[in-house]
Amino acid sequence: MKHVNPSFEAVRPTIGSSFTSLKFLTNENIKSHVWHYHPEIELIFVCKGSGKRQIGSSISYFSDGDLVLIGSNLPHCGLTNENTHNDYEMVIQFKPDFLGEPVWNIPEMQRISALLEKSKAGIVFGEQVKKTIGKDIVEMHEASSLDRLCRFLKILDELSLTQDYRILNAGKYYLQTQIEDNERINLIFNYVKDHFKEAITLEEVADLANMKVPSFCRYFKKITNKTFTRFVNEYRITHALKLLAEQPLSITEVCFESGFNNFSYFNKTFKEYIQKSPSQYRKEFNFFME
Length: 290
Known about the structure:
Jelly Rolls; Arc Repressor Mutant, subunit A; six-stranded antiparallel beta sheet; transcription regulation; sequence-specific DNA binding
């Protein structure tokens, strides 16, 4: 199977606007297998539905929609596919200097400027923020000209005020600073994405990166702020979360479908990452959805 580096995506502003605002109905924006990046900052709202998000070195599961802010040149996959079952998806893309560089230095823009700085590591917002801002994004999309811009700035300001958010990539995740790093690390990411259900050895991924195992381990930790084993386990646990929430499989079947070949190790790892057992997670998820 061929592995590709994240592709550069050219983004064009909406006609008559300084930024891009797009609305996609169900299954219209299927990019969950497309690893890409662009200089534009991206605010994505998924209305309802559930799925996996991979932004930088962070892999996580979302349910009942999503609201994320992805910084400039931060590699990511699309959030929706034919199995997400979302109502629609809103995508806003804008360059860091879309209002001109000096504007971010004025006092009124300091909070938003700080928000955009944080977005370099990827931000996911909480439930209440998601519902409120999601409606605002739809209304903004349907507005025109200066009204649209004013509504957009208000959205960014509201996001800059909330404490209900989580940074997706611990530490600094700036893969875009080194082209060689970008190509190498994303070759590894794609390999994990394609083979996480199989046994993956350090030797084979180190060979893929043209490195010795000790050098590869140090390199991967430096770039992603986590060990390679942790990265693979996170990918597998995220897939398990998706299966537990969406498929009528037994816990044992979920274990092996997620790439774990030892049931007790799966339970231990799951509890370590999620702070509850797989059966407890499924029970609480079903109760929440009901």
